[in-house]
Description:
- By secondary structure, this protein is α/β, with parallel strands linked by helices.
- The chain contains ten helices and six strands; from the N terminus they run βαβαβαβαβαβααααα.
- The chain is elongated.
- It starts with a strand and ends with a helix.
Amino acid sequence: MVADDQVLVRGSFRLLIDHTPGLVCVGEAGTGREAVEVVRRERPDVVLMDIRMPDMDGIEATREICQGVPRVETRVLVLTTFDLREYVLGALRAGAHGFLMKEALPAELIEGIRQVAAGGRLLAPTAQGQLIDAYVEMPERQVTPLPHITGREREVLILVARGRSNDQIAADLSVSISTVKTHINRLLAKFDGRDRSHLVIAAYEGGLR
């Protein structure tokens, strides 16, 4: 379903979705509160969620959908014209599974819907940059224990969160590229992630420095 306060935007997204094989739009909402109501009634697989909406903004609506009672299996893909850091972090903390800019190409949007529906996470490049910046600038705080990762995996996770490439991580830790890839694949499996952005989120939320 599509949640956006602009009628023309909602209509454009709905038209794109309904003309894509395997996808169908089951509803629309013009406010955040209406989005929550439609989700609980229609139980869509994915919601395209705008952030700036009347009555209840998209972040709060996302929180209601992903963390509220009764719980639903709907996954939220946030679409916005603003890549402000507070929007990126707010949406992810509220439970969103993806963050794309409205300027994304139609093919990118459709692929994003499919990826989120399949259980993956998706971050636009600018949103991932905002998340990395927030991690780097994060003040010192108590570290949340992550007992299910090894010491080396922890080191790799921190470097990934700082935006380091595989080559840079290998040089930093004096290990081979294949070893770095192995650690990253293991981390993705442990955090049930599909890409590096999920690891950045895990490091940020875990308070790792």
